[in-house]
Specification:
Blueprint lengths: L3 H104 L7 H29 L2 H5 L2 H16 L2 E6 L8 H22 L3 E9 L2 E8 L6 H4 L5 H12 L3 E7 L3 E9 L4
Parallel strand pairs: 1-2
Antiparallel strand pairs: 2-3, 3-5, 4-5
Length: about 280
């Protein structure tokens, strides 16, 4: 018969081992939970830091875009002021001089008025007036194309495509099956400006010989595509300073509830696709 002291020691040893196992399990559980907690906090911190970096990038882009748009406004104002001063100012000065000269001829008493010569002078003044009117219309068209208000977006896009070919020599085609589309004044203007900015980029950077402008409708969206056969824009070029014009296009589309996608194939050209809801979302 074992002694009670031996049984007691065995109970103490077994109990101690059990407590050690339970304690070890508890400590391991706590450590594992703490490790998971630390990992979770680290992931949250990384996400927060990434969001902060993204926000900083967005703020920088917005700041650059604002400066870019202001620069464009100032450039446009300077160009308009120069054209008004250099072109319209000179034309009006010549008209004034011709009118003054004709007035002196009519008022003179030293010689008989030459009807044929006077008619030529009036014809010259009339031609100068026509040139002045054309210059005024050209400047006004640069600010706001009349055709956009008078004939609508489709004809305005066709007109702009033809004008682009006349200005640059790049063969330009306009393809559409649409006969009429009503986006409203502001939305039509935004789509038209997106087209202008896209064609400007083609002229400046694409080194293209051909460009095709396509207008279509998919469900409730208007789809504007501009495809050129130039060198093809790259991802690196999309992120450069000069891509602020593209950022401005994206902002226009985003403001309308739409989007712009740009795909470049090196050596094969660039495709710009603008998708804009026909109705205000």
């Amino acid at each position: 018969m074992p002694e009670p002291t031996t049984d007691l020691w065995w109970l103490i040893i077994i109990g101690t081992i059990a407590l050690l196992l339970i304690g070890s399990f508890f400590i391991m559980t706590v450590l594992f939970s703490q490790k998971r907690f630390i990992k979770s906090q680290r992931e949250k911190l990384e996400i927060l830091e990434k969001n902060q970096r993204d926000m900083q990038v967005s703020r920088d882009q917005l700041r650059k875009l604002t400066a870019h748009l202001e620069s464009i406004r100032e450039e446009e104002r300077t160009n308009i002021a120069r054209e008004i001063h250099d072109e319209l100012g000179q034309l009006m000065t010549v008209i004034k001089m011709d009118v003054s000269l004709l007035k002196r001829k009519i008022q003179t008493k030293e010689k008989i008025l030459n009807i044929s010569e006077t008619a030529k002078d009036l014809q010259s003044i009339s031609a100068l007036a026509d040139t002045t009117i054309q210059s005024i219309r050209r400047i006004a068209t640069a600010l706001r194309p009349e055709i956009l208000d008078e004939l609508g977006l489709i004809d305005a896009i066709g007109w702009e495509t033809n004008m682009f070919q006349s200005r640059t020599g790049v063969k330009s085609d306009f393809v559409t099956n649409l006969e009429k589309i009503d986006l409203g004044r502001d939305r039509s203007t935004a789509v038209f400006r997106i087209l202008q900015e896209t064609l400007t980029n083609v002229a400046r950077h694409a080194y293209a010989s051909e460009v095709c402008v396509m207008l279509d409708r998919e469900a409730n969206d208007l789809i504007l595509k501009v495809q050129d056969n130039g060198k093809g824009i790259t991802e690196t070029e999309l992120s450069r300073e000069r891509s602020l014009g593209l950022l401005g296009m994206r902002e226009r589309a985003l403001f309308l509830g739409g989007e712009i996608n740009i795909f470049g194939d090196h050596g094969k050209g660039t495709l710009v696709t603008a998708r804009v809801p026909i109705k205000n979302p």
